[in-house]
Amino acid sequence: xxxxxxxxxxxxxxxxxxxxxxxxxxxxxxxxxxxxxxxxxxxxxxxxxxxxxxxxxxxxxxxxxxxxxxxxxxxxxxxxxxxxxxxxxxxxxxxxxxxxxxxxxxxxxxxxxxxxxxxxxxxxxxxxxxxxxxxxxxxxxxxxxxxxxxxxxxxxxxxxxxxxxxxxxxxxxxxxxxxxxxxxxxxxxxxxxxxxxxxxxxxxxxxxxxxxxxxxxxxxxxxxxx
Length: 226
Known about the structure:
The protein is mainly beta. The protein has helices at residues 2-15, 52-55, 124-129, and strands at residues 20-25, 36-37, 68-71, 75-80, 89-97, 107-116, 118-119, 122-123, 134-138, 144-156, 167-180, 184-185, 188-190, 224-225. The strands form 4 sheets. Strands 2, 3, 5, 6, 10, 11 and 13 form a 7-stranded mixed beta sheet that branches. Strands 1-4-9 form a 3-stranded antiparallel beta sheet, with no helix packed on it. The radius of gyration is 17 Å and the shape is globular. The chain starts with a helix and ends with a strand. The relative contact order is 0.22. Mean pLDDT is 94; it is low at 1-14. This is lytic cellulose monooxygenase (C4-dehydrogenating). It is found in: Secreted.
Protein backbone atom coordinates (compact mmCIF):
# COMPACT_ATOMS: atom_id res chain seq x y z
CA UNK A 1 0.00 0.00 0.00
CA UNK A 2 2.80 2.42 0.93
CA UNK A 3 4.63 1.65 -2.30
CA UNK A 4 1.45 2.35 -4.27
CA UNK A 5 1.00 5.71 -2.57
CA UNK A 6 4.62 6.67 -3.24
CA UNK A 7 4.26 5.66 -6.90
CA UNK A 8 1.08 7.70 -7.28
CA UNK A 9 2.79 10.70 -5.70
CA UNK A 10 5.69 10.45 -8.11
CA UNK A 11 3.36 10.17 -11.10
CA UNK A 12 1.43 13.24 -9.94
CA UNK A 13 4.63 15.23 -9.46
CA UNK A 14 5.95 14.34 -12.90
CA UNK A 15 2.61 14.98 -14.62
CA UNK A 16 2.61 18.49 -13.17
CA UNK A 17 5.92 19.25 -14.89
CA UNK A 18 5.50 21.36 -17.98
CA UNK A 19 6.97 22.90 -21.12
CA UNK A 20 6.16 25.79 -23.47
CA UNK A 21 5.28 24.11 -26.79
CA UNK A 22 3.66 26.56 -29.19
CA UNK A 23 2.93 30.22 -29.84
CA UNK A 24 0.88 32.38 -32.17
CA UNK A 25 1.72 35.83 -33.58
CA UNK A 26 -1.49 37.78 -34.24
CA UNK A 27 -3.36 34.52 -34.61
CA UNK A 28 -0.82 32.72 -36.82
CA UNK A 29 1.43 29.93 -35.53
CA UNK A 30 4.69 28.76 -37.09
CA UNK A 31 3.83 25.26 -35.82
CA UNK A 32 4.17 22.98 -32.83
CA UNK A 33 7.54 23.59 -31.08
CA UNK A 34 8.70 25.67 -34.08
CA UNK A 35 10.74 28.73 -33.13
CA UNK A 36 11.24 27.55 -29.53
CA UNK A 37 14.47 26.38 -27.89
CA UNK A 38 13.02 23.15 -26.48
CA UNK A 39 14.71 21.75 -23.34
CA UNK A 40 15.68 18.07 -23.07
CA UNK A 41 12.94 17.37 -20.48
CA UNK A 42 9.99 18.98 -18.72
CA UNK A 43 11.84 19.22 -15.41
CA UNK A 44 12.04 22.55 -13.56
CA UNK A 45 15.03 24.78 -12.99
CA UNK A 46 15.57 25.45 -9.27
CA UNK A 47 19.06 26.99 -9.21
CA UNK A 48 18.50 30.66 -10.02
CA UNK A 49 22.26 31.28 -10.20
CA UNK A 50 22.68 28.83 -13.09
CA UNK A 51 22.64 29.83 -16.76
CA UNK A 52 19.74 27.36 -17.02
CA UNK A 53 17.54 30.13 -15.54
CA UNK A 54 17.92 32.03 -18.83
CA UNK A 55 16.27 29.71 -21.37
CA UNK A 56 16.22 26.35 -19.54
CA UNK A 57 18.72 23.47 -19.82
CA UNK A 58 20.68 23.74 -23.05
CA UNK A 59 18.79 26.91 -23.90
CA UNK A 60 21.76 29.16 -24.59
CA UNK A 61 22.15 27.61 -28.06
CA UNK A 62 19.61 28.54 -30.75
CA UNK A 63 21.31 26.68 -33.59
CA UNK A 64 18.73 25.12 -35.88
CA UNK A 65 15.81 26.96 -34.29
CA UNK A 66 13.65 29.05 -36.61
CA UNK A 67 13.33 32.79 -35.99
CA UNK A 68 9.71 33.89 -36.42
CA UNK A 69 8.60 37.25 -37.82
CA UNK A 70 6.55 39.64 -35.68
CA UNK A 71 5.89 43.36 -35.37
CA UNK A 72 5.78 45.70 -32.42
CA UNK A 73 2.24 45.75 -31.07
CA UNK A 74 1.40 42.22 -32.28
CA UNK A 75 -0.51 39.89 -29.99
CA UNK A 76 1.33 36.80 -28.79
CA UNK A 77 -0.45 33.71 -27.52
CA UNK A 78 1.58 31.00 -25.77
CA UNK A 79 0.53 27.47 -24.93
CA UNK A 80 1.95 25.37 -22.10
CA UNK A 81 1.33 21.91 -20.69
CA UNK A 82 -1.38 21.72 -18.05
CA UNK A 83 -0.14 22.29 -14.49
CA UNK A 84 -1.66 22.05 -11.04
CA UNK A 85 1.17 24.04 -9.48
CA UNK A 86 0.13 27.51 -8.28
CA UNK A 87 2.08 30.47 -9.61
CA UNK A 88 2.48 33.26 -12.17
CA UNK A 89 3.47 33.48 -15.81
CA UNK A 90 5.79 36.23 -17.06
CA UNK A 91 7.31 37.21 -20.39
CA UNK A 92 10.56 38.99 -21.11
CA UNK A 93 12.43 40.10 -24.21
CA UNK A 94 16.18 40.18 -24.85
CA UNK A 95 17.38 42.36 -27.69
CA UNK A 96 17.50 43.73 -30.25
CA UNK A 97 20.41 41.65 -31.51
CA UNK A 98 21.71 40.82 -34.96
CA UNK A 99 20.92 37.12 -34.60
CA UNK A 100 18.53 35.56 -32.09
CA UNK A 101 19.83 32.10 -32.97
CA UNK A 102 23.41 33.10 -32.10
CA UNK A 103 22.46 34.87 -28.87
CA UNK A 104 22.84 33.09 -25.52
CA UNK A 105 20.74 35.56 -23.54
CA UNK A 106 23.16 35.29 -20.64
CA UNK A 107 23.69 38.57 -18.80
CA UNK A 108 22.13 42.02 -18.86
CA UNK A 109 19.54 43.07 -21.39
CA UNK A 110 16.30 41.35 -20.36
CA UNK A 111 13.16 43.39 -19.78
CA UNK A 112 9.72 42.26 -18.65
CA UNK A 113 6.81 42.91 -21.02
CA UNK A 114 3.98 40.86 -19.46
CA UNK A 115 2.94 39.39 -16.13
CA UNK A 116 -0.09 37.46 -14.85
CA UNK A 117 -0.03 36.62 -11.15
CA UNK A 118 -3.06 36.09 -8.89
CA UNK A 119 -6.36 37.47 -10.19
CA UNK A 120 -9.81 37.15 -8.61
CA UNK A 121 -8.75 34.28 -6.38
CA UNK A 122 -6.89 32.28 -9.04
CA UNK A 123 -3.24 31.86 -9.96
CA UNK A 124 -2.14 32.15 -13.59
CA UNK A 125 -1.92 28.38 -14.04
CA UNK A 126 -5.64 28.02 -13.17
CA UNK A 127 -6.65 30.93 -15.40
CA UNK A 128 -4.67 29.44 -18.28
CA UNK A 129 -6.02 25.97 -17.61
CA UNK A 130 -9.53 27.25 -18.28
CA UNK A 131 -8.39 28.41 -21.75
CA UNK A 132 -6.57 25.32 -23.05
CA UNK A 133 -3.48 26.35 -21.09
CA UNK A 134 -2.95 29.47 -23.21
CA UNK A 135 -2.16 33.07 -22.33
CA UNK A 136 -2.28 36.06 -24.66
CA UNK A 137 -0.45 39.36 -24.32
CA UNK A 138 0.73 42.19 -26.58
CA UNK A 139 4.25 43.10 -27.64
CA UNK A 140 5.12 46.70 -26.72
CA UNK A 141 4.11 49.16 -29.43
CA UNK A 142 7.52 50.83 -29.24
CA UNK A 143 10.22 48.25 -29.92
CA UNK A 144 13.37 48.75 -31.95
CA UNK A 145 13.65 46.61 -35.07
CA UNK A 146 15.85 43.56 -34.70
CA UNK A 147 15.90 40.01 -33.46
CA UNK A 148 14.91 39.06 -29.92
CA UNK A 149 14.60 36.19 -27.51
CA UNK A 150 11.12 35.92 -26.01
CA UNK A 151 11.31 34.24 -22.61
CA UNK A 152 8.16 32.62 -21.21
CA UNK A 153 8.39 31.62 -17.54
CA UNK A 154 5.95 29.82 -15.25
CA UNK A 155 7.04 29.88 -11.61
CA UNK A 156 5.60 27.07 -9.47
CA UNK A 157 5.24 28.12 -5.83
CA UNK A 158 4.00 24.93 -4.21
CA UNK A 159 7.45 24.24 -2.71
CA UNK A 160 8.49 27.87 -2.20
CA UNK A 161 8.32 27.37 1.58
CA UNK A 162 11.96 26.25 1.49
CA UNK A 163 14.96 28.10 0.07
CA UNK A 164 15.62 26.70 -3.39
CA UNK A 165 12.21 25.06 -3.51
CA UNK A 166 10.50 27.30 -6.07
CA UNK A 167 10.39 25.73 -9.51
CA UNK A 168 10.95 27.62 -12.75
CA UNK A 169 9.64 26.30 -16.05
CA UNK A 170 11.14 28.29 -18.91
CA UNK A 171 11.04 28.36 -22.69
CA UNK A 172 12.59 30.84 -25.12
CA UNK A 173 11.29 31.63 -28.60
CA UNK A 174 13.20 33.47 -31.30
CA UNK A 175 11.55 36.49 -32.92
CA UNK A 176 12.48 38.96 -35.65
CA UNK A 177 10.53 42.11 -34.78
CA UNK A 178 9.95 45.17 -36.91
CA UNK A 179 9.33 48.37 -35.02
CA UNK A 180 10.15 52.03 -34.63
CA UNK A 181 11.08 52.27 -30.96
CA UNK A 182 14.41 52.72 -29.24
CA UNK A 183 14.88 51.45 -25.68
CA UNK A 184 12.95 49.62 -22.96
CA UNK A 185 13.64 50.03 -19.24
CA UNK A 186 14.24 48.75 -16.64
CA UNK A 187 16.49 45.89 -17.66
CA UNK A 188 17.68 42.94 -15.58
CA UNK A 189 20.42 40.31 -15.78
CA UNK A 190 19.87 36.56 -15.98
CA UNK A 191 21.41 35.02 -14.04
CA UNK A 192 22.06 37.76 -11.54
CA UNK A 193 18.81 39.47 -10.62
CA UNK A 194 17.05 36.40 -9.20
CA UNK A 195 18.07 35.33 -5.69
CA UNK A 196 16.91 32.16 -3.92
CA UNK A 197 15.82 34.22 -0.92
CA UNK A 198 13.90 36.93 -2.80
CA UNK A 199 10.41 37.50 -1.41
CA UNK A 200 8.84 36.38 -4.70
CA UNK A 201 10.84 33.13 -4.76
CA UNK A 202 11.12 32.07 -1.11
CA UNK A 203 7.71 32.31 0.61
CA UNK A 204 7.93 30.49 3.96
CA UNK A 205 4.29 31.26 4.85
CA UNK A 206 2.85 30.39 1.42
CA UNK A 207 0.25 28.02 2.94
CA UNK A 208 -0.48 29.91 6.15
CA UNK A 209 -0.83 33.66 6.26
CA UNK A 210 0.58 34.66 2.86
CA UNK A 211 -1.59 37.16 0.96
CA UNK A 212 -1.33 36.18 -2.74
CA UNK A 213 -2.87 39.49 -3.84
CA UNK A 214 0.39 41.17 -2.83
CA UNK A 215 2.53 38.90 -5.00
CA UNK A 216 4.61 40.35 -7.83
CA UNK A 217 6.56 37.92 -10.02
CA UNK A 218 10.36 37.97 -10.27
CA UNK A 219 12.02 40.13 -12.91
CA UNK A 220 11.17 43.62 -11.76
CA UNK A 221 8.54 45.95 -13.13
CA UNK A 222 7.00 45.67 -16.58
CA UNK A 223 9.21 47.79 -18.80
CA UNK A 224 8.37 51.07 -20.44
CA UNK A 225 9.38 51.22 -24.11
CA UNK A 226 9.86 54.43 -26.07
